[in-house]
Amino acid sequence: MAEPLGLEEVRRALAEDAAGRDVTTRLLGAAAAGPAAGRFVAGGEFVVAGLPVVATVLRELEPGACLDAGAAEGSRARSGDVLAVAAASGQTLLAGERVALNFLQHLSGIATVTRRAVDAVAGTGARITHTRKTTPGLRALERYAVRVGGGVENRASLADAVLWKDNHWALLGHAGRTLRDVLSAAPPGLPIVVEVETEAQLEEALAAGVTHILADNQSPERVAAWVRRAGPGVTIQASGGIVAETAAAYARAGAQLISIGALTHSASAASISFAIQGLEIRLP
Which of 85, 178, 203, 248 has the greatest count of CB atoms below 10 A from its CB? Predict the structure, then answer.
């Protein structure tokens, strides 16, 4: 049986929030132990992502808790839409609401920015992807939100692919070796991506047989020129300060892949509220 989405991250977040030692809810006494329901409501327009993580939060606190989703992952929410209704004890809802909202708001924000970029390049054949500029400890969930928004997978960690960057170039110069020499020692079958910032680096990468070039911090015009120079069979990926509003220019330039760090490091949280209903509270 597959592990619930975000279980490890949820456990860390609940521990951080001391959800099992909610001193405020304890003041309600037995009243908080009874069944209750609460609604997650959209406060604006955004792409929904993270409802399965909300379910993980509730069930980690109370195995019998239920979440009835009123919106699908990846759907567009409008202000006033009920995203989900949670049913559990009052103490579970009170203890878990902030952690649940933190995940839901954050992941929905990432999915929303991603969808905006995906829509901007629609019809060009270019794909939008993330970078490793993620929140420490949340990379797997943030990558999930990018997928929900329509983006595609990129390198998840340093072990997933060879990604030759500017500082590797700097050390290569001191080592007195060529790019072809060092890449020949790469593990067989592992993807190789080489970041280039100059014409000379581009030529050396192509001479080394590299078929995936990362054009970093270049104008769309230069990317277009490098696409022509590389020719068919070479993937050109654009990166470096690109946002949803500028992605289309790189897609028109011929970049097949566009990586945007802002998807994860700068996405604004979606506006979502949570309100408990159906619980009659009597102070002891």
Answer: 248
